[in-house]
Structures are given as C-alpha cells and as structure tokens.
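Repro:
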Amino acid sequence: MTPRFAVIGLVVSDLTASLAFYRRLGLDFPSGAEELPHVEAELPGGLVLALDTEATVRSFHPAWRAPAGGGRVGLAFRCGSPAEVDAVHADLTDAGYHGELKPWDAFWGQRYATVHDPDGNGVDLFAPLPAE
C-alpha cells in the first residue's frame, strides 16, 4: 500500500478559540467538541482537519514544546468569488482575529488575503479573479 495524505493536524493552545475560528470558516466540528482533547472535521475531498490540545500532545510526547515565533503551518480556503474573500476577511477581522494581509488582487490572478488563527497560523482566503 502507498501512504496517502489524509490529515492536517494542528496543536492548539485554546481549543474553544480555535473551534470558534474554524467554525466561522464553515468547518463542521461535533457539538460539545470544546470538552474533548482531540477533534476532527472532515474536509471536502476526504481530508481531515484535526485539532489537539497541547495537553493531549504532551500526554504521549512529554518533551513536546510549542514552536517559538508563531505559526508554522499555512492553510488556505477557496472562496466562491473575490467579493466573498473580502466578506470573509471582514467577518473574521471584525470578530477580532488578526488580519495579516488585507484583500488584494494578486498578480497570479486571485483575490487574496491572510488572517491568523488563534495560534498565529496563517489562513489564506482566495478566489480566482474574473478573466479579462
């Protein structure tokens, strides 16, 4: 069997805050997930986004330490239109999340923006620009 990419795992410092952020982006985590040490949301295409608390990771890897200097992973969410990039960015920043990069028309043909999740991971929002 050939290994197949299946899970994106994030270690989070505040599970409730992370669930609120990713739910705001439309991910479906189970009700009551805030009380669990490990939660998963299935993504389109069969991938899974898994969130583990720092305590959970330390339970099987006691020497684990959070990386210094902020997030080390980037996630990207495709929006349905350039206007949706602007709307989702505004929704997240209005809710208090850090907007790292305001929406702009990127030279590679996308409306593009970046916000940070509660642990400082970059979360990109993008949509193709209309053809000229």
